[in-house]
Write a sequence for this structure.
């Protein structure tokens, strides 16, 4: 399963961005998106920013991720 995580660009250097979410920072290549800017929200997957997001969409997705991380574990039933 692949997962892309919304992150905010906090600095840029050439084709690389330092991205952050919830005090976690990662470097990501920005070669796949147009006109990256500090403050942009991007989807980061496997070290690449693959898409720009509007802030509201990024925050909604992050809210769901945070909610899932707080959910109690439930074993899967075998049918």
């Amino acid at each position: 399963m692949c997962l892309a995580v919304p992150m905010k660009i906090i600095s840029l250097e050439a084709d690389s961005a330092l991205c952050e979410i919830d005090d976690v920072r990662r470097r990501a290549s920005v070669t796949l998106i147009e006109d990256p800017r500090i403050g942009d929200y991007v989807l980061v997957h496997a070290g690449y920013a693959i898409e720009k997001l509007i802030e509201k969409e990024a925050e909604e997705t992050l809210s769901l991720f945070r909610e899932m991380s707080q959910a109690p574990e439930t074993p899967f039933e075998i049918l």
